[in-house]
Write a structure and sequence with these properties.
Blueprint: E1 2-3, H1 8-13, H2 15-18, E2 22-27, H3 33-46, E3 51-55, H4 56-63, H5 68-80, E4 83-89, H6 96-109, E5 114-119, H7 127-130, H8 133-145, E6 147-152, H9 157-160
Parallel strand pairs: 2-5, 2-6, 3-4, 4-5
Antiparallel strand pairs: 1-6
Length: about 160
C-alpha cells in the first residue's frame, strides 16, 4: 500500500476524520482495501466515533426496501455516523435509481463526515457502473475534493494463500 502525502502515522491517528476528509482505497482484488477500511472503522469506534460499513450493492438494496421504516433507519445510521465506509464500489453495476440514491448519500455526507471507498475501478470507468455521465462527474467531484488516495498493489492475499497450489 502506498499512502499519498498523508503517511501511515496520520492515517492511524484518524486525523482525516476530524477534517472530514475522505479516503479512496484503490487497487487490485485481494490486496487489503476492505481489511484496512474495517480496521480504521474499528479504530474510530474505539475512539468513541460512530462508523458504519456497507457494501455498495447492499446499501442500495436496503434503500430500496418497501418498508419506509427500514429505509429511514439506514438514513439515520448514515446521518449519525462520523465515518461511512462504502466497500466494493463499482463491483456491480447500479440501475439509474440506485445511482441516484448513491449520489444523494454522497451529497449528504459531503463536508459533513468522512467516507472511505474501496474500489478497483479508476475514476474514468465509474460511469460504467453509474450509467450517467453528469451524475458520475458530480459524485467524483464531491468525493475527490477532500480526499486522499491510497494505492494497493501486489498479488491477492487470498490467491497467495490458497489451499489450491
Amino acid at each position: 500500500m502506498s499512502t499519498d502525502k498523508m503517511g501511515q502515522e496520520k492515517l492511524a491517528s484518524l486525523s482525516f476524520l476530524e477534517k472530514k476528509e475522505n479516503l479512496i482505497l484503490y487497487g487490485s482484488v485481494g490486496t487489503g482495501k476492505t481489511h484496512l477500511s474495517v480496521a480504521l472503522g474499528v479504530q474510530a469506534i474505539a475512539q468513541g466515533k460512530k462508523a458504519v460499513f456497507f457494501r455498495v450493492h447492499d446499501l442500495i438494496n436496503q434503500l430500496e426496501d418497501d418498508d419506509p421504516k427500514k429505509v429511514s433507519k439506514v438514513h439515520k445510521k448514515i446521518h449519525q455516523a462520523d465515518l461511512l465506509i462504502l466497500d466494493e464500489w463499482g463491483y456491480l453495476p447500479l440501475h439509474q435509481e440506485g445511482a441516484r440514491m448513491l449520489f444523494e448519500i454522497i451529497s449528504a455526507c459531503y463536508e459533513a463526515k468522512s467516507i472511505i471507498i474501496t474500489t478497483n475501478i479508476e475514476f474514468g470507468r465509474w460511469k460504467g457502473f453509474l450509467f450517467d455521465e453528469k451524475l458520475t462527474a458530480a459524485i467524483v467531484d464531491r468525493l475527490v475534493h477532500h480526499s486522499h488516495m491510497l494505492m494497493f498493489t501486489g498479488k491477492s492475499y487470498r490467491m497467495a494463500n490458497s489451499l489450491m497450489k
